[in-house]
Amino acid sequence: MNTRLTIVNPVATPRSRADGDRFPPAPRPATLDGATVVLYWNGKQNGLDALARARELIDARFTGVTFVEMTGALGGTTRYLSEEQLDLIERRADAVVATTADCGSCCSWLVRDLCEVERRGVPAIGYTAEIFTEDARFSAQTFGVPEACPVIVPECFSNRTTDEIRAMVDDSFEEVVACLTTDRTVYDVLPEFDSMVLEGAPELHYDGADLLDAFDEMQRRFVVNGWSDGMPLMPPTRRKVDAMVEASGLDGDHVIGDFAPGFGIGTVEKVAANAVMAGCRPETMPVILAMMECILDPSIGLRTWAMSTGPQAPLVLVSGPIADEIGMNRGICALGPGSVSAVNVAIGRALRLIMMNVGLSYPGITDMDTIGTPMKFSACVAENEEATPWDPWRVQQGFAPEQSTVTVNVPYGMTEFFDFQNSDPERLIESWSTLTSHAVGTPAAGAWLIKQDAPLSAGYPFHGTFSNMLLMAPDHAAAFAAAGWTPERIREAIHRRTKLPFRQLMLNQSMDAFETSHPELRWLLDAPDTMVTVNPSAECFEFFVVGAKAGRSQFCFGGTNSVTKPVVVP
After folding, report:
1. Domain range holding 75?
2. Quick one: pLDDT band at residue 515, thresholds 50, 70, 90?
3. pTM of the model
4. Are residues 145 and 234 in the same domain?
């Protein structure tokens, strides 16, 4: 006799499928003779080489073609088309050739552009590396034109020579012509994805010889379907999920928001089910909801880092009395592992599962991280307020002492800041600035040189407003405070000392983008050894005191804008 395990389905329905938000692809002209073709570059490295070759080939094949060059919106501050640019394309263009979709987030942004152009009646293609095929197809469905035309080339244009890029453009040119001049067949049924399973049933059932066997079957099916983070999950039974929903003070069908990149409909029940799977208890639900508000804030750019080839992972910081009330660890091994950090780990893990099963950020389709990072499993800590020599973090962010807050920042990585030797703040600053100056291999380092300041609402926040978060050990905080240093003074000192030669800072940045974004700084091209600040301002450094004794802090570099929200306990 079989035993059945019944659970609440944790997987959200994409908004595009729920609303049937579909738009037909644009009608194609029979020829590009006499056409106006927009050559759009989204700022991705080496994309201009591809566009230059595409222009040569189109010009050789067709007569009387007019070309219009266009870069990312707001003069290159973002990697997508603005409404003004889209309006211009609709009025003037007959076709668009776009590049490049060489990373997970860039692929999504570029396909979004293709879909927006198609919706305005203009055919478009965008170059996409083969590894991002599923990403491109999923994004086309997400943005409502599943017939949109990513042109698949074998390799990324990034890290390729001009000759290699030209060869790929040559080999794909007939497909480019066909995509721009042959009407697209409209799908009667949306294509499925080999490694993504979307299930709409409200409950799921798993059978076994006994309950443990049924539990094992649930684990197996979750791994097969891609719904698991790779570790054993707690079954989100109706009783446990209802307890989490009750702790929220909201109805289970209340929609918190649509979660990028798949724009899954994030109801309280879906969030609660994933929190249960992570091992969270009902009393943590107010913290989890505040965490949701953080990642749904446009300024944090959820779609960008959820899909990126980079190892960005959310770091969750809890400040205030609720941390002790729910049993969070703020001392030794606060980032885990171990039973002492069970609450921290469960909250951080819940965020990853919610990103996967509500936001539909699944590896190989919508999470294209080149290598990955263990930070993606869980990274959540509570402030060691007793060891904080300044105002608590939440007060520094403008909240009252009696309130509790959640902050989310999304760094590229983490490295140790070790200094057992010094109690002199100047020496500590010198030690730390040496470390920060050499965290130069991330897109955030020197990014201000290739981008102007985009508004935070643009959702591409890796320049101008990004934060390097130092998880400051109490001993380091005490040394600064004993000498009368405030967080503001520490920020200014670090910023002044964190410099590199312009030549070195530009090693992994686009010189074309630099000349477009900052023509007033072109003099640096003639003085490449000029020392330049790695970060645009002192505001790019923040400090959160956590941990136990000994001078070992953790430097989390190249993060997003930090978003802080209050915890609301019903």
Report:
1. 25-181
2. confident
3. 0.90
4. no
